[in-house]
Write a structure and sequence with these properties.
heterodimer; A: five-stranded antiparallel beta sheet; elongated; B: 303 residues; mainly alpha; 2 strands; membrane (chain B); transmembrane (chain B)
């Protein structure tokens, strides 16, 4: 094994584009990733968000070169690296388990990558990287003598010190407590903008993904369900999975009754809910529509019908949880199940109580229509209960059954 | 001291053990009694024997004395055999390491995703122990004999000069030692490699370390404890071995090791003080060598 193949000397001037073309990865018995196409522009902070087992960590390992794709190509800065080995790629990873070398001191750990690439002033650079994560004072200790949070920062320093074209972060903040995590999120973001590297961050924490990343891709069952900037994803989710995984959503399923050029009307158990055409993924048949809890307003009496507001009700408040800044209400509607409402605590008089009869309304412009197939559309008796559209319908059916029992 | 290196796994010192408890002492009692009866008593008896001198009245028996010259005599008489023992044992340890490390690596790391094959391979490593050590060594004598297949083939190829036997040479003795002690080398190395976190190797690869570099900088240092235990478990018994080097097995009078000399003095010549002095010299030499080795290899990493 010659050492010449290792990228020698010098650092990446800036981050590099990452391009995945038609990547799929099959393990014996299951497919982790299916036909994935993804482009991450240079210098961006990209988050891959999904539940465990969705294929996000496999994607990361493919990019790092720790796994080989079954099909497809991986390009970094325009160069095809699919057939190169992990140690030949200008990529570094912050591992979920930190993977610090237990027999080396902290400074030896951080300087490891630099020394392998034959960089001369490895030790001063390693100390600089440790200063960046404020751990230079423990440089001569062994990893086992540090706390989990400190180890995590060392793992970060060990990767960042190499100035890779692409930095991969595998749930890097998972083991930290909330305060330290916030601090590290800010530090990471600072480091990223300071050194201008391309960051690919894999996480199952939607809040972390949204606060840190420029672009978030929501991944489910080996596919990217939706990709965009965090605000776009939050305000206009395309699938029930995104709507429920990224924040909370109130979802309603019904038949489209009229479809105009500007908006479509959906009949949900006798109530009409309007959605703007450009915010609906599908315009006919059985569709699922939704609204975010904080967009919904509570009323003591039936509000006036108007064309720009959707009104649902009456229902009863079944749960109130006060959290200081806002109050979360659970409103049970006989026809629509439970709807969650977040209400800002801007006036004390507007508080609603358990058992109050209320009406709900929200701006038509805040409603979104999802792409999910309706559950009655398919012919078979038993549906795959992990299908994304089922998440919405099942939860509703469950609640309806509960209400029936009352 | 050196004996702590035998445990391949590093274990944290338990602070609770420091507390003196009568129950702990009580539980230790059987072990202490056993050691006093079967280790300390024979050792003292051996030390006393080593200083005995011939009985001036009854020929062939010995009386207690302080004849320290016994040590000088045995060292002068058997210096060659002592050096040969150290040399043979060192070579056998080296060869056992060259065979045992790849084997331990294969079982502990390559076969890790296949637990069934891993178990099977481990059984194969231990399988020779199901047959007596003596029988296996005798079988090798048969295979290496002048009429055996190996001597026949080597003779026909003119690699082995006419009239030259394979048995009774340094080669066959070192071969026998290596063969017999490979499992003692393999098992501790396997134990450390089986618990090696493979994510560390991935991290090494990710940080621009080629497989060879990652092996040298990560795998090897992290398996040092196993290599250490394996070399000690091989070297110590190999240095005192008297089966492989004996004339009845793979050796000859040219390959006599210190173990054979002790055996002959005890059982044939019945020169008990010489045999006892030699045994103690062997024990002291091994203790000194091993403690130097443990110290050189950096004990604080292992204990």
């Amino acid at each position: 094994m010659t050492n010449n193949e290792v990228p020698q000397g010098g650092f990446a001037e800036a981050g590099a584009d990452l391009e995945l073309v038609g990547i799929s990865k099959r393990f014996p018995g299951f497919t982790a990733i299916e036909e994935l196409d993804l482009t991450i522009p240079a210098g961006s902070f990209f988050a891959l968000l999904g539940p465990s087992g969705c294929g996000k960590t496999t994607t990361l390992r493919l990019i790092a070169g720790l796994e080989e794709p079954t099909t497809g190509r991986i390009l970094i800065g325009g160069r095809d690296v699919t057939s190169t080995r992990a140690y030949q790629r200008p990529v570094n990873t912050v591992f979920q388990s930190y993977a610090l070398f237990p027999h080396m001191t902290i400074i030896e750990n951080v300087a490891f990558g630099l020394k392998r690439r034959g960089i001369k002033n490895a030790d001063p650079l390693a100390h600089e990287a440790l200063q960046l994560v404020e751990l230079d004072h423990v440089a001569n200790r062994k990893p086992a003598q540090l706390s989990g949070g400190q180890q995590q920062r060392v793992a970060l320093a060990r990767a960042v010190v190499n100035r890779p074209a692409l930095l991969l972060l595998d749930e890097p903040l998972g083991a930290l407590d909330l305060k330290l995590r916030r601090q590290m999120q800010i530090e990471l973001k600072d480091i990223q903008s300071e050194v201008g590297l391309t960051f690919l961050h894999v996480t199952h924490d939607q809040e972390e993904a949204m606060t840190m990343a420029d672009t978030v891709a929501v991944m489910n069952k080996g596919r990217i369900e939706q990709m965009g900037n965090p605000q776009e994803l939050y305000e206009l989710p395309h699938t029930a999975f995104v709507a429920t995984f990224l924040g909370q959503s109130n979802l309603f399923t019904g038949e489209v009754t009229s479809s105009g050029s500007s908006s479509i009307s959906v009949d949900v158990s006798g109530t009409t809910i309007d959605v703007r055409s450009d915010r609906a993924q599908r315009h006919r048949g059985r569709v699922t529509v939704g609204v975010r809890p904080e967009k919904v307003t509570l009323h003591d009496s039936a509000p006036k019908q108007s064309s720009d507001r959707n009104v649902v009700g009456p229902g009863r408040v079944t749960d109130v949880s006060f959290s200081g800044v806002s109050t979360q209400y659970e409103v049970t509607l006989p026809t629509h199940g439970v709807v969650t409402v977040f209400s800002q605590n801007t006036s004390i008089t507007a508080m609603h109580h358990d058992g109050d009869e209320v009406w709900l309304s929200w701006d038509v412009g805040h409603t979104f229509g999802l792409a999910d197939e309706s559950y009655t559309a398919a012919g078979s008796r038993f549906q795959d209960d992990t299908d994304t559209s089922m998440i919405a319908t099942q939860s509703r059916e469950k609640l309806e059954a509960e209400l029936g029992a009352d | 001291m050196a004996f702590t290196a035998f445990s391949a796994q590093t274990s944290a010192a338990e602070p609770a053990a420091k507390r003196r408890s009568p129950i702990a002492l009580f539980l230790l009692l059987p072990g202490i009694l056993y050691l006093i009866l079967f280790f300390v008593t024979p050792l003292i008896s051996l030390v006393i024997t080593s200083f005995q001198e011939p009985d001036p009245v009854r020929f062939g028996s010995f009386v207690n004395a302080f004849r320290w010259e016994n040590y000088v005599i045995v060292l002068e008489t058997y210096g060659e055999q002592s050096l040969r023992s150290a040399g043979f044992a060192a070579l056998a340890t080296l060869f056992a390491l060259l065979i045992g490390f790849p084997l331990g690596y294969f079982i502990g790391i390559t076969l890790r995703p296949y637990p069934l094959l891993q178990g099977l391979a481990l059984v194969l490593v231990i399988a020779p122990f199901f047959i007596s050590f003596l029988l296996r060594t005798l079988a090798w004598k048969q295979i290496f004999s002048d009429e055996g297949p190996i001597a026949g083939v080597l003779g026909a190829l003119a690699i082995l000069p006419p009239g030259q036997a394979i048995t009774g040479t340094a080669f066959s003795v070192i071969f026998g030692l290596t063969y017999n002690f490979v499992p003692f080398m393999t098992l501790p190395i396997y134990a450390t490699l089986a618990s090696l976190d493979l994510r560390l190797l991935e991290a090494g690869n990710d940080l621009y370390g080629s497989p060879a570099v990652t092996f040298r900088t990560v795998t090897l240092p992290l398996s040092a404890a196993g290599v250490m235990s394996g070399t000690l478990l091989t070297f110590i018994p190999a240095a005192g071995d008297y089966i492989n080097a004996s004339r009845e097995f793979l050796g000859s009078t040219d390959t006599t090791m210190i173990g054979n000399v002790i055996e002959t003095n005890f059982l044939v010549l019945q020169n008990f003080p010489a045999a006892a002095a030699l045994s103690l010299v062997l024990m002291a030499a091994i203790l000194i060598l091993v403690s130097l080795y443990v110290r050189r290899s950096g004990t604080e990493e292992l204990l």
